[in-house]
């Protein structure tokens, strides 16, 4: 758990480095057994809701960062 910056909007469209043990293959739901790192782009809440409409109602701008990898 991390505290988000108070002025999160000023970081939109900047690089974001994340780490964790999450899923590495969304079609097989394969979990990583080693710590993984991803470099992504922080996007606005508006864009986040466009990319992930199924989660739009659950997204709380004070609790979540939304990132997107254009690859």
Automatic annotation (TrEMBL):
SUPFAM superfamilies hit by this protein: Trypsin-like serine proteases
Name the record gives this protein: Chymotrypsinogen 2
């Amino acid at each position: 758990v991390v505290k988000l910056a108070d002025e999160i909007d000023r970081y939109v469209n900047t690089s974001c480095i994340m780490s964790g043990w999450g899923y590495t293959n969304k079609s097989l739901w394969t979990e990583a057994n080693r710590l993984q790192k991803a470099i992504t782009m922080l996007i606005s809440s508006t864009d986040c809701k466009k990319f992930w409409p199924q989660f739009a109602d659950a997204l709380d701008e004070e609790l979540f960062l939304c990132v997107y990898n254009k690859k």
